[in-house]
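>> Question from a student workshop board

For tomorrow's exercise we were told to take the sequence and the ligand below, predict the bound structure, and bring the output to class. My setup keeps failing. Could a helper post the expected result so I can at least see what it should look like? The ligand is S-adenosyl-L-homocysteine.
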Amino acid sequence: MTDLLSLTPDAARAAVAPWLAARSEPAYRGSQIVARLWQRPVASWEEATELPTALRRALAEAFPLRRLRLVTRQLSRDGTEKFLWQLEDGEAIESVLIPEGKRRTLCISSQVGCALGCVFCATGRMGFRRNLAPAEIAGQVRELLLSPAGQAPTNVVFMGMGEPLLNWEAVDASLTILNHPDGFGIGARHITVSTVGILANLAKLARRPEQFRLALSLHAPTSALRLALMPIEKKYALPDVVQALQQFRRRVTLEYVLIGGRNDDLETADHLAGLAKPLGALVNLLPLHPGGAPDLTPSSRRRMLEFERRLRSRGVEAVLRRSRGLDISAACGQLRVELEPRRKVRAEEHARVE
Ligand code: SAH
Ligand code: SF4
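>> Workshop helper replied:
Here is what the output should look like for this input. Compare the format with yours to find the bug.
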């Protein structure tokens, strides 16, 4: 049995072609079948009524469609929605949908748990359980489309559970499925991979020709401070990660969770500015979600604003995010924050008189 949903669209077409030929089915059935994987997804082959009944039965035998079972769907007061999916082996993962104006950003998971143990992170506390298959990663988008009133996300971010660059092969295939016109057709610039900076795989991501976006979880501008928050610093030291970013050739976002008394003093902001400025990076400042770490406190609102102002005064583009979905502990057992820059108010919007 082949898991078509774990293949890229081209590989899926190649996998069904000999099977169709052996059944003396016309070759165009291949495109009809691939279209039902992601473009116009079906919950089961039975629903693909454009195909002959016998073929649908045979497809169900040879290529069963893997589903994620929706366990709970919670809606926050601010419109953020959290989905808890159960996998075939009983493991569970979360996705979070964040509507904002016309944008609908889906935050997806790449692993069950995470091995990296960042001190502020709820997923890190769980430890690592297993990698997700592409059918389970891209499947989070697929299931959203299959759900009642399901609408496709405009943006996808790998900011749910897990470290995407420690599951490179599946993430690599998932990126293709998300972006490919025969997949979900989401523009590469609307797909963001968030990582602590796993160097070998960062280079593989950089080599892909599509303009996928990169968010680097920095959280500290010096190695010593980063080490206290993120054990991965031992393996991939900050100077090497920064060097890798310089080679990325695309503008990167630096993610920075503000933790009271740990990484939020203004001298640290100056260090951060010194690091971000030459990279031309955008700095996303995230309020600490208390769910991840009972022993840590978020920075005060005032300090967050001061920190943001300090970065800006040093010529760094910095944006303080609002926490979203706090009342439903979105995302992914930790924090869900806005991931895209605040909408800029354009001149004509000021000028328009109704
Ligand atoms: N493992 C990847 C992607 C998943 S985490 C990474 O670390 O980048 C997605 C983002 O959520 C990261 O920037 C991470 O630092 C942030 N995050 C984790 N726990 C958090 C918390 N308690 N509060 C705020 N942000 C958190
Ligand atoms: Fe893993 Fe990212 Fe959480 Fe760190 S922040 S433990 S890398 S999921």
